[in-house]
Specification:
heterodimer, A: about 350 residues, mainly alpha, two-stranded antiparallel ribbon, two-stranded antiparallel sheet, 4 strands, B: about 180 residues, Four Helix Bundle (Hemerythrin (Met), subunit A), 7 helices, globular
Chain lengths: ~350, ~180
């Protein structure tokens, strides 16, 4: 019993330290990446290559005075950032960062909550992500925040549909809903050199999922929830200092969780990257280590992709966003799903 | 055991808050919390799939529409809409009788009929095998019940008289 509790505490600590520890680095990459794409210099004064700039920002956020407007609804105003962060961290509970491994005499599963329905749990938790934003927008008692929250919420609910069709299609292809079995399916090579990744089987589903991630995490080109030029800053307009920082953290954690799910579905999850699998497995701990490294590299590339897209595409107009979601992506996802189901059915005959 | 009792109390308290809270948005969020606590009860019973679907569909999609609509239209102007009438009295007596009937069923221990599916069997395959063969008729009946509830909602709220009354009230509020 005690052993199980200690195991869960260690797993929770690792799974929470992984994204929260990576956050300052991601913010740094975001800023320097923006500067690189726009041919600027970017923050480069604090520490080597400006690496300590995020830490200085954290210190600033900590010591900044918290402005608590008098016209807000106090309970919900304080609860909203916490709800946003907790809900963003929840999906990580069922995302494995490596395969099951032998630790002395027992098999350890790396995810906090081990279940063969883990993938559903992760998507269910990520579906709750809009509540934090909605609550913040409403509790701030301000028309701009309200508009931002309603936009964010409508956008998240709309794009969740096409994202779900992609997920269901992939579950049909894999024939399982266990994340470890999905990754097993994607381990190995076709013709000896193409990795057996889901993206090569279902490119349409991968595209739908990728667009869905951008909409779900409210990133450009879908950041209508913030829309600085129209509604000032959207749902977090009335928040300052640490409360604002928590919203910021929630957005990035949500991004990491969704990228991890995308990688599990379409890029082989924690399966070892081509090239890294040439390293001989002389020690039983080398394989888990290689798996964590592979997953980290894949997530880092995804984050770079997020930054790249952010500073390349302009923001969509709101009607364009809704048309894209409901009239293009959803029918495409349903057609893709039907074709996949028929294909899997006749293959199994 | 203590956890079960806690979850049950939580569900009941939030369900009562849906009905009795004065602010509509608080009621909507209590509805969300009720749905989430029911999901936790499923989870506690070991049916992770049902719990996840409950969160995904009911809490993630349906409750959000409630919250959305309640924030979009300012419902607080219709708060003092609690006049008494004969039909309301009859309906509340009928509802009480139905609830008492359900309670007497539970007390008489006739609830084995409801737990015919072995819920400890967690796999999706067994669940849907049962649902689409043995329990197909009750499943379809439930959908018919939902349809009937939908039609009833439209009839109650969308009658021409009701719409006129609402419009008059809205006009009065605007004139003020």
């Amino acid at each position: 019993m005690l052993e199980a509790i200690i195991e869960i505490i260690i797993k929770t600590a690792v799974i929470m330290a992984f994204p929260l520890g990576a956050l300052p680095l991601i913010i740094h990459v975001e800023r320097r990446g923006a500067a690189f794409i726009q041919k600027r210099v970017g923050p480069n004064r604090v520490g080597p290559f400006g690496l300590l700039q995020p830490l200085a920002d954290v210190a600033k956020f900590m010591f900044k005075e918290e402005v608590h407007p008098s016209h807000v609804r106090p309970f919900f105003y304080s609860a909203a950032p916490l709800i946003a962060l907790v809900v963003a961290l929840l999906p990580l509970a069922c995302i494995p960062i490596m395969g099951p491994f032998q630790f002395f005499d027992r098999t350890v599963y790396p995810e906090v909550f081990r279940s063969d329905m883990g993938i559903f749990f992760a998507f269910a938790a990520s579906a709750l992500g809009s509540y934090g934003i909605l609550l913040a927008g409403w509790a701030s008692n301000n028309k701009y925040t309200m508009l931002g929250a309603l936009r964010a919420c409508a956008q998240m609910v709309s794009y969740e549909l096409s994202l779900s069709t992609a997920v269901v299609a992939m579950i049909f292809i894999f024939g399982t809903n266990d994340i470890h079995l999905m990754v097993d399916w994607q381990t190995g090579y076709w013709f000896g050199f193409i990795p057996k990744w889901g993206v090569f089987v279902q490119p349409v589903a991968a595209m739908l999922f990728l667009v869905g991630i951008f909409a779900e995490s409210n990133r450009l080109p879908f950041d209508l929830a913030e829309g600085e030029s129209e509604i000032v800053a959207g749902y977090h307009l009335e928040y300052s200092s640490m409360k604002f920082a928590i919203f910021f953290m929630a957005e990035y954690v949500h991004m990491i969780a969704l990228s991890a799910l995308f990688i599990i579905m379409f890029f082989g999850g924690y399966s070892v990257l081509p090239g890294l699998d040439l390293i001989p497995l002389s020690n039983p701990f080398i394989l888990p280590l290689l798996q964590v490294t592979s997953l980290t590299i894949k997530i880092a590339l995804m984050i770079w992709f997020f930054v790249w897209v952010r500073w390349t595409f302009p923001r969509f107009r709101y009607d364009q966003l809704m048309n894209l979601g409901w009239e293009r992506l959803l029918p495409l996802g349903i057609v893709n799903l039907i074709i996949t189901v028929l294909f899997v059915y006749f293959r199994n005959q | 055991m203590a956890y079960d009792i806690l979850l049950t109390i939580m569900t009941m308290v939030f369900a009562l808050m849906v009905v009795f809270s004065k602010k509509t948005v608080v009621a909507a969020f209590s509805l969300l919390m009720t749905l989430l606590s029911i999901a936790m009860i499923y989870f506690q019973l070991g049916t992770v799939f049902l719990a996840a679907i409950q969160v995904l569909v009911n809490a993630g999609a349906i409750a959000i529409l409630f919250v959305f609509v309640m924030m979009l239209i300012n419902l607080e102007q219709f708060q003092n809409n609690r006049e008494r009438s004969k039909s309301k009295l009859i309906i509340s007596i009928l509802t009480t009788l139905i609830i008492l009937g359900v309670f007497s069923l539970i007390i008489n221990n006739n609830i084995e009929v409801l737990s015919a599916v072995n819920i400890s069997d967690n796999s999706m395959k067994t669940l849907f095998d049962k649902l689409f063969t043995e329990y197909y008729l009750p499943f379809e009946m439930a959908t018919v019940l939902l349809l009937a509830a939908l039609v009833a909602c439209i009839v109650i709220t969308g009658s021409e008289k009701g719409i006129k009354q609402e419009q008059e009230k809205l006009q009065e509020n605007l004139n003020e």
